[in-house]
Amino acid sequence: xxxSLLHPAGPGxxxxxxxxxxxxxxxxxxxxxxxxxxxxSAIAYPSxxxxxxxxxxxxxxxxxxxxxxxxxxxxxxxxxxDQNRAGTAVTAASQFPAAFATSPRxxxxxxxxxxxxxxxxxxxxxxxxxxxxxxxxxxxxxTIDQLGRKGVAAGSFTTSRYATAAAxxxxxxxx
Length: 175
Description:
Radius of gyration: 30 Å
Strand order of the largest sheet: 3-4-5-6-7
Number of helices: 3
Shape: elongated
Order of helices and strands: EEHHEEEEEH
């Protein structure tokens, strides 16, 4: 027996076939589904964005820790932070920037942080400055100094989210 029947002849219906038992979605069902998807998206997307930002921040913090270790080895070899024994500044392209320019490193994806060092003979501060997708990250620019003190650059964190620099450091360096 055929599953389709001919509609009785009527205005505009002559010869059309209709499947028995076939049923579509109603407009109300589609709207309810759309509303559920919209609500889930509104909750999930910000959470996803925060997770991606946290991952990028953790990667930058790891890069800062590696840069800190690099600077300590540099000091061990040269007995100063600002230049090597040949007089080449640590900020010269062949020195610190060759190893640590961005996070993630060149060739590993779009830069989210630019990493730079400011050094004198006996101390330094390495700063990861937000850029690209992280430009508006509320944690601000991450820093680490020659004593291993972790921080955020003054005025770079969002005060509406973190009342003090200490609160920003506690939240943003904790991964």
